[in-house]
């Protein structure tokens, strides 16, 4: 069978892959996008929908800023906005010791162009009257917000297809290699795709592909747990989260314009990468509810109508693998987003397209290079 | 061996007979039901203080109802009965419960899901108006509350309940404006060879129709629903339909009872990760079970209308069989003859079910004809046009994908009332068989769960 | 007894139960012991609430706790599923979401 040829093959049609394909096409590259199931069906389609910058790993802020700028232009770029709303994002804390952490972060974030407004107990109460008495301080990021994950990646995918990207759904790549000048990706049904450049955006399954180039990464999969309430009048505009050092205190919520309140946080459930499912654990809901009541007591009367989870990939240092391969020329990676990838998606797509097109990018992504695991990989091989 | 922990969800005919069978073997099961009283749907008990007799409440089924209630009363101190308790989630061998605003969990070695059924619905323009109720709702209003859903009620849909409930209304003194059946009469004749499997039930059915006609109630078969008209604030005012001859008719009414037979409450089976199979005749998915009620998941058993809509008598048999399967799987001695006899009876009910399905088919074709502005999902107010856009503009062919794009099935009822019709709308729009569209995956909680819920320390150790 | 022309439902027996007084949106109302809240309300008025998404009033649908169309509120902001909640004397029921009075905080 004759392989199908393009300038770039992108493996994995989540938000990273669809956005990268879209921006590569805008740079005039011919692109094949290969997705095992349907576009945006995995982590990108089921996440919480937070388009949040504050609280991120500081060196990631330039990328997050670039992404935020694209979120604001989705309508113009894609013809639809994926329900992105710049409603602001607020983080509050319960522990006086955490106030210092919040303040220090706000100070440093300023150097990266992210202006956060610090709120004390009084200003918190005056401005956002819905917080419980334990919320003693917070920081507000006025230009962050949220979007609908069910819509975002498919919107990028459709826009990519409209502009000429060859999108293949139900196409699982089981092997990829670079026998000569070109990469050859072979699908489970035998179809072949070939290109001088390959980008792996396979989310939790990225490690299975990088391993084929002898660049294993210590990837772990978990299922963050989400829930949604019945619709209520649309009143809680900002996205709300808790800043804490205690894992079970972590909870975040947002109200969508139709009125439902989406929330997540707390213990993560098991995720099964092999069967592509992650299940919400009923036993984890109790703590989430307790934390929601603590954060916004007035929600105690509302009803949860649905819970779910999704498969997310985590790396030990909690930052993604992003950039060129350390071993194979023409090979690029962008996966393993450790629960923070939704906000970054459009920016990752844009940066990877720039990197592939230009050989470099204006946005610093050096900390995410796969080579940081090379030592470890070598050690584990020799052990 | 320690006493096995056996949990039954549902105190309807299936659950009660399962409990009785277990108790007879010296096991003390936990019986969970979200209702305040036992009896399930058909033998639903009226509130304390109501005085209607068994005969007036349950008609020809009075004897069975009384027997069921007596059996349950006799079990009360030999089971751990937990009324007003919702089973809302399952994780491995643990069932999650909600009682008032307290959550708890019970561990089980074996779980018998006897969760019954709810009405199966096909939308019609205006079915979101106040005054439109499910067929089951109309019956509950009468049985459990001695009320009618309106002053002048039209019964529309198909299936045996259509005639049964209309007759019950008429007998109780309610005004029945008409009975409108989408199934053409000739199908009933064609299905006779299967329906004769239960001659007594067949005769009862015929008698019902006769009684309705004698009472001067208009019965139309082979109709096509057009619209339930009214105003947003007032609700239902008239119903419009096309007769089998193609004439459009309008009937004034202030309430419509609507239903097309039943669908299983299979969320718990789904959450237990049981496999499902497609039933081509009724165009719906049922959880897979063997002749005795074993699901595809070890330790999870299915009985009654929650697994397959065979009716109340069959639910009793299925409940007994499932309990015997549990006992036998736990290594207890079970009488083979008894099992064989029960299985034989179940096969007769299955033949009859096929007859009913053939005589009163699910009007799949109506989905393709739904107007663009007809609401498909009542909870989220999503129209057929919006659902079709998810298919034609966004390429969704599988129902959970279409749900993600359109919000159909994302509301409070979790797709119970729109799921089957939505699948037909998608299938027709995409030009694929409805089994390829699939079914809406269940997500916990099975019913809405209050954020204020506090968990019990119970965690049965 | 409480046969009310303005109500949606109609009683067909079980008359003579004791009466319970409650209120709907501040208006006094009367039901019978053993009534579900849904029945008691629909003996007085024609709806329970209105759809969040603008398609008009709703009056319940399944009466068996499955469709969730019948949720109403108490004046203290609790939510009750009217079809599965027995009427109790003194209930103060609202047909509109109290959160509508919340300030919109941005
Ligand atoms: C429940 C949950 C909540 C979250 N909340 C947030 C949040 O609020 N904010 C935030 O910023 N981030 C959040 N995240 C993280 C975020 O969703 C992810 O980091 C991001 O979506 C990752 O995108 P992706 O494209 O890398 O991965 P995915 O969306 O998983 O996409 C990878 C794709 O690759 C495909 N694929 C894999 N292997 C192959 C193969 N061999 N051949 C072909 N295709 C293949 C898969 O089918 C999949 O579609 C959350 C994640 C989850 C699970
Ligand atoms: C509204 C309605 C009216 C009907 N009327 C008739 C009739 O008049 N004649 C006739 O022959 N058949 C009728 N049927 C069919 C009849 O219900 C069944 O054949 C019979 O009741 C089935 O018995 P079952 O034990 O399988 O389920 P059911 O009798 O339905 O009992 C199921 C029980 O499980 C409980 N339950 C379900 N899920 C949960 C959960 N998650 N947590 C806790 N408890 C749960 C329910 O509260 C219920 O009590 C009717 C069905 C419905 C839905
Ligand atoms: S009317 Fe359906 S839940 Fe009450």
From TrEMBL, chain A:
<protein>
    <submittedName>
        <fullName>Sarcosine oxidase subunit beta</fullName>
    </submittedName>
</protein>
<feature type="transmembrane region" description="Helical">
    <location>
        <begin position="6"/>
        <end position="24"/>
    </location>
</feature>
<dbReference type="GO" id="GO:0005737">
    <property type="term" value="C:cytoplasm"/>
</dbReference>
<feature type="domain" description="FAD dependent oxidoreductase">
    <location>
        <begin position="7"/>
        <end position="355"/>
    </location>
</feature>
<keyword id="KW-0560">Oxidoreductase</keyword>
<keyword id="KW-0812">Transmembrane</keyword>
<dbReference type="InterPro" id="IPR036188">
    <property type="entry name" value="FAD/NAD-bd_sf"/>
</dbReference>
<keyword id="KW-1133">Transmembrane helix</keyword>
<dbReference type="GO" id="GO:0016491">
    <property type="term" value="F:oxidoreductase activity"/>
</dbReference>
<keyword id="KW-0472">Membrane</keyword>
<dbReference type="Pfam" id="PF01266">
    <property type="entry name" value="DAO"/>
</dbReference>
<dbReference type="InterPro" id="IPR006076">
    <property type="entry name" value="FAD-dep_OxRdtase"/>
</dbReference>
UniProtKB/TrEMBL annotation, chain B:
<dbReference type="InterPro" id="IPR017224">
    <property type="entry name" value="Opine_Oxase_asu/HCN_bsu"/>
</dbReference>
<dbReference type="InterPro" id="IPR041854">
    <property type="entry name" value="BFD-like_2Fe2S-bd_dom_sf"/>
</dbReference>
<dbReference type="InterPro" id="IPR036188">
    <property type="entry name" value="FAD/NAD-bd_sf"/>
</dbReference>
<dbReference type="InterPro" id="IPR007419">
    <property type="entry name" value="BFD-like_2Fe2S-bd_dom"/>
</dbReference>
<keyword id="KW-0560">Oxidoreductase</keyword>
<feature type="domain" description="FAD/NAD(P)-binding">
    <location>
        <begin position="5"/>
        <end position="311"/>
    </location>
</feature>
<protein>
    <submittedName>
        <fullName>FAD/NAD(P)-binding oxidoreductase</fullName>
    </submittedName>
</protein>
<dbReference type="InterPro" id="IPR023753">
    <property type="entry name" value="FAD/NAD-binding_dom"/>
</dbReference>
<dbReference type="Pfam" id="PF04324">
    <property type="entry name" value="Fer2_BFD"/>
</dbReference>
<dbReference type="InterPro" id="IPR051691">
    <property type="entry name" value="Metab_Enz_Cyan_OpOx_G3PDH"/>
</dbReference>
<dbReference type="GO" id="GO:0016491">
    <property type="term" value="F:oxidoreductase activity"/>
</dbReference>
<dbReference type="Pfam" id="PF07992">
    <property type="entry name" value="Pyr_redox_2"/>
</dbReference>
<feature type="domain" description="BFD-like [2Fe-2S]-binding">
    <location>
        <begin position="375"/>
        <end position="427"/>
    </location>
</feature>
TrEMBL record, chain C:
<keyword id="KW-0560">Oxidoreductase</keyword>
<dbReference type="GO" id="GO:0016491">
    <property type="term" value="F:oxidoreductase activity"/>
</dbReference>
<protein>
    <submittedName>
        <fullName>NAD(FAD)-dependent dehydrogenase</fullName>
    </submittedName>
</protein>
<dbReference type="GO" id="GO:0051536">
    <property type="term" value="F:iron-sulfur cluster binding"/>
</dbReference>
<dbReference type="Pfam" id="PF13510">
    <property type="entry name" value="Fer2_4"/>
</dbReference>
<dbReference type="InterPro" id="IPR042204">
    <property type="entry name" value="2Fe-2S-bd_N"/>
</dbReference>
<dbReference type="InterPro" id="IPR036010">
    <property type="entry name" value="2Fe-2S_ferredoxin-like_sf"/>
</dbReference>
């Amino acid at each position: 069978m004759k392989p199908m040829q393009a300038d770039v093959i992108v493996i994995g049609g989540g938000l990273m892959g669809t956005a990268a394909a879209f921006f590569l096409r805008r740079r005039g590259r011919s692109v094949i996008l290969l997705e095992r199931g349907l576009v945006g069906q995995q982590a990108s389609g089921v996440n919480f929908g937070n388009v949040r910058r504050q609280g991120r790993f500081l060196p990631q802020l330039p990328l997050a800023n670039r992404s935020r700028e694209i979120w604001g232009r989705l309508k113009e770029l894609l013809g639809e906005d994926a329900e992105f709303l710049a409603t602001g994002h607020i983080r509050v804390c319960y522990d006086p010791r955490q106030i210092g952490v919040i303040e220090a972060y706000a100070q440093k974030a300023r150097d990266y162009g992210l202006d956060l407004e610090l709120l004390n107990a009084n200003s918190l109460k005056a401005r956002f009257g819905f917080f419980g008495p334990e919320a003693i301080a917070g920081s507000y990021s006025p230009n962050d917000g949220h979007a609908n994950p069910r819509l975002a990646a498919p919107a990028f995918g459709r826009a990519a297809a409209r502009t000429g990207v060859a999108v293949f759904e139900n196409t699982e790549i089981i092997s990829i290699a670079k026998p000569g000048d070109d990469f050859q990706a072979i699908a489970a049904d035998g179809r072949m795709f070939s290109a001088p450049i390959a980008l792996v955006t396979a989310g939790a399954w990225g490690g299975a592909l990088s391993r084929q180039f002898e660049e294993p990464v210590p990837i772990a999969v978990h299922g963050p747990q989400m829930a949604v309430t019945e619709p209520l009048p649309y009143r809680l505009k900002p996205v709300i989260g808790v800043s804490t050092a205690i894992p079970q205190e972590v909870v975040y919520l947002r109200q969508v314009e139709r009125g439902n309140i989406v929330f997540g946080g707390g213990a993560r459930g098991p995720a099964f990468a092999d069967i592509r499912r992650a299940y919400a654990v009923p036993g984890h809901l109790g703590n989430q509810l307790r934390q929601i009541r603590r954060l916004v007591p007035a929600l105690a009367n509302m009803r949860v109508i649905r819970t779910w989870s999704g498969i997310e990939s985590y790396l030990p240092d909690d930052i993604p693998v992003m950039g060129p391969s350390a071993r194979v020329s023409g090979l690029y990676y962008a996966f393993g987003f450790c629960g923070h990838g939704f906000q970054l998606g459009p920016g990752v797509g844009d940066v990877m397209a720039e990197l592939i097109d230009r050989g470099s990018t204006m946005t610093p992504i050096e900390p995410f290079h796969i080579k940081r695991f090379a030592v470890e990989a070598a050690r584990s091989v020799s052990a | 061996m320690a006493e096995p922990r056996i949990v039954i969800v549902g105190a309807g005919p299936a659950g009660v007979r399962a409990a009785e069978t277990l108790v007879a073997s010296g096991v003390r099961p936990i019986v969970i039901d979200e209702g305040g009283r036992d009896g399930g749907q058909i033998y639903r008990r009226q509130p304390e203080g109501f005085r209607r007799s068994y005969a007036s409440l349950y008609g020809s089924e009075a004897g069975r109802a009384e027997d069921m209630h007596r059996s349950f009363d006799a079990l009360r101190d030999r089971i751990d009965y937990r009324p007003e308790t919702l089973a809302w989630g399952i994780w491995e061998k643990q069932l999650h419960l909600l009682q008032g605003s307290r959550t708890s969990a019970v561990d089980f070695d074996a779980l018998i899901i006897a969760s019954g059924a709810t009405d199966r619905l096909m939308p019609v323009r205006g079915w979101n108006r106040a005054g439109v109720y499910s067929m089951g709702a109309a019956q509950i209003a009468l049985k459990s509350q001695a009320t009618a859903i309106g002053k002048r009620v039209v019964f529309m849909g198909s299936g045996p309940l259509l005639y049964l409930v209309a007759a019950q209304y008429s007998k109780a003194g309610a005004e029945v404006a008409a009975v409108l059946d989408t199934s053409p009469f000739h199908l009933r004749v064609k299905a006779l060879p299967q329906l004769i499997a239960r001659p007594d039930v067949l005769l009862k059915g015929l008698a019902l129709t006769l009684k309705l006609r004698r009472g001067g109630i208009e019965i139309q078969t082979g109709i096509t629903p057009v619209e339930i008209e009214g105003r947003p604030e007032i609700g239902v005012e008239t119903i419009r339909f096309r007769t089998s001859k193609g004439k459009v008719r309008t009937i004034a009414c202030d309430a419509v009872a609507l239903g097309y037979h039943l669908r299983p409450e299979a969320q718990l089976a789904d959450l237990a990760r049981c496999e499902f199979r497609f039933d081509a005749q009724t165009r719906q998915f049922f959880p897979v079970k063997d002749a005795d009620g074993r699901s595809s998941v070890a330790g999870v058993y299915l009985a009654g209308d929650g697994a397959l809509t065979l009716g109340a008598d069959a639910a009793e048999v299925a409940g007994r069989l499932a309990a015997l399967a549990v006992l036998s799987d736990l290594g207890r001695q079970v009488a083979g003859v008894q099992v064989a006899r029960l299985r034989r009876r179940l096969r007769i009910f299955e033949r009859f079910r096929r007859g009913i399905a053939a005589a009163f088919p699910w009007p799949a074709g109506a989905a393709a004809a739904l107007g663009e502005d007809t609401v498909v999902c009542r909870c989220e107010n999503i129209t057929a046009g919006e659902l079709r856009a998810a298919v034609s503009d966004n390429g969704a062919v599988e129902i959970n994908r279409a749900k993600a794009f359109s919000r159909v099935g994302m509301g409070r009822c979790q797709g119970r009332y729109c799921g089957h019709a939505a699948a037909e709308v998608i299938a027709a729009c995409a030009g694929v068989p409805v089994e390829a569209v699939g079914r809406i995956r269940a997500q916990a909680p099975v019913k809405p769960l209050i954020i204020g819920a506090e968990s019990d320390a119970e965690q049965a150790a | 007894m409480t046969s009310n022309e303005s109500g949606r439902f109609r009683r067909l027996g079980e008359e003579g139960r004791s009466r319970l007084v409650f209120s709907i949106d501040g208006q006094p109302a009367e039901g019978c012991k053993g009534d579900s809240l849904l029945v008691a309300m629909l003996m007085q008025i024609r709806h329970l609430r209105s759809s969040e998404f603008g398609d008009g009033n709703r009056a319940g649908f399944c009466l068996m706790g499955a469709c969730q169309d019948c949720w109403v509120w108490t004046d203290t902001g609790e939510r009750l599923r009217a079809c599965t909640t027995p009427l109790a004397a003194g209930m103060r029921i609202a047909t509109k979401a109290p959160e509508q009075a919340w300030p919109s905080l941005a």
